[in-house]
């Protein structure tokens, strides 16, 4: 380069600079494009599910009210009511919350506040493994252990029941609740605990009156995430739910939640029947969007 | 009275933690106890036989196909998206929208992804029930995981690195691929490992997009079963808990190895001197 005349050098530099700027420009556009792909995917998913699912109500004259509150699902006779499945999904999720939240929350508190280091070192990876086990295996376990157990001990004709679903879902939501709540509780500043202890509060009193309230928004997020996992779970639930199309009235009733309706019938459904499965998806989707909305509200409040 | 209440609560805390561990031990223990008799080299490397006694090699290959294809697509897109969000974007409406979309994708249940895949990739794009349709669906499922973990990894790269590189006259792009990405690599890798775990464990979305053909896939356009779907189907159709548990052992071992690998890498990350 040094031997080149000055004009040549600058044109050369200009050229390589031009190329550099061009590359910089193009690459930042490519990065933006990649980032927008997730927005695009989300819109595509929502668009397709809603388009397919709303078609029978817009173009084929089916009533949406009858769909939501109808109690009969007989695709061969053109009857599409998903009320029993909505009730089943809601019952199963609430039941799983009642069992899963206290156990998960207490485990999280134990891990962050009480556990000796050596114990935390065993329990934390265990929870991590529990989170990683494929959901199908929870179903296999439920069918092989929980279902026969209920059948024998409660004297049921069929162990596949609301209670079996609740137990399996409670187990499945545990790791989510434990890990998220543990992180939230660990984030509470040490000074809170020290202040409380210095004022004469006991260790347990400090945990429940100071630390847990301080971590409230994180704990709420943990619960909402666990809820999302429970309401969206499919394959494990199919194996233990029994899949009867009735409104469950007791814990021992066999039932069919929204998710399993889709998975069980999607394989052979076509036409209106298939579109009604997408409509079932819309209802499920609406529950999830509602949860996301609640979660966003909680985390924005936590941020303040 | 206070002491009694304290002790009661303390007892409940211990009880809950022990219960959580007990549940894990019972589940994993049961699956190993029930399935270990079937585990052999022939079982893992043998071809499937519809009459029973066959192996699960086709399902392992199918699972590997789905992992490789979806990661080949999701990893570059996810990393570049995270780079945009962390290094390029001005914080504002657009970034907020992208973040919201990514978070929403995380919350969507896999059965909805399955529905979408079945109508978009399988039907609209005419890919049919196939490994490729399932892999593309899985790509969208793991994309937010890769974006989020890469973002976290980029956040841990100290500012001085960027400033030093830029001060030496490197362009933003050169700084990115010579300085920032190499230092964020351990974090990105553990994100990819997490994604593998998610793909291996996924079932509902694959069930609706790859179909259930129990044979060695001829190409990525064939319908096939992954390990999880196979485990589900042998339970649901044949009630063969022993076979399902044996597949479960293979799955749990894979997840365990992935977890250890992720922990190992993130430990290395913490030891790195910056």
UniProtKB/TrEMBL annotation, chain A:
One Pfam family of this chain: BPD_transp_1
Listed PANTHER family: PHOSPHATE TRANSPORT SYSTEM PERMEASE PROTEIN PST, PHOSPHATE TRANSPORT SYSTEM PERMEASE PROTEIN PSTC
GO terms assigned for molecular function: phosphate transmembrane transporter activity
GO cellular component: plasma membrane
PROSITE patterns: ABC_TM1 (PS50928)
CDD domains: TM_PBP2
Swiss-Prot/TrEMBL keywords: Cell membrane, Membrane, Phosphate transport, Transmembrane, Transmembrane helix, Transport
GO biological process: phosphate ion transport
Origin: domain of life: Bacteria
Cell compartments where the protein resides: Cell membrane
SUPFAM superfamilies: MetI-like
Function: Part of the binding-protein-dependent transport system for phosphate; probably responsible for the translocation of the substrate across the membrane.
Protein name from the UniProt record: Phosphate transport system permease protein
Membrane topology, record value: Multi-pass membrane protein
Transmembrane segments: 30-51, 82-111, 123-150, 162-185, 219-247, 276-295
Annotated family: Belongs to the binding-protein-dependent transport system permease family. CysTW subfamily.
Domain ABC transmembrane type-1: 86-295
Organism: Pseudobacillus wudalianchiensis
NCBIfam families reported for this sequence: phosphate_pstC
TrEMBL record, chain B:
GO biological process terms held by the UniProt record: phosphate ion transmembrane transport
Keyword terms of this UniProt record: Cell membrane, Membrane, Transmembrane, Transmembrane helix, Transport
Domain ABC transmembrane type-1: 60-262
Cellular compartments annotated: Cell membrane
Record keyword Cell membrane present: yes
Entry membrane topology: Multi-pass membrane protein
GO molecular function: phosphate transmembrane transporter activity
Keyword Metal-binding: no
Segments passing through the bilayer: 12-33, 56-85, 105-123, 129-147, 179-200, 243-265
SUPFAM superfamilies referenced in this protein's UniProt entry, alphabetically: MetI-like (SSF161098)
A Pfam family that the UniProt record links to this protein: BPD_transp_1
InterPro entries: MetI-like, MetI-like_sf, Phosphate_PstA
GO terms for cellular component: plasma membrane
Protein family according to the UniProt entry: Belongs to the binding-protein-dependent transport system permease family. CysTW subfamily.
Protein name: Phosphate transport system permease protein PstA
Annotated organism of origin: Pseudobacillus wudalianchiensis
Taxonomic lineage of the native organism: Bacteria, Bacillati, Bacillota, Bacilli, Bacillales
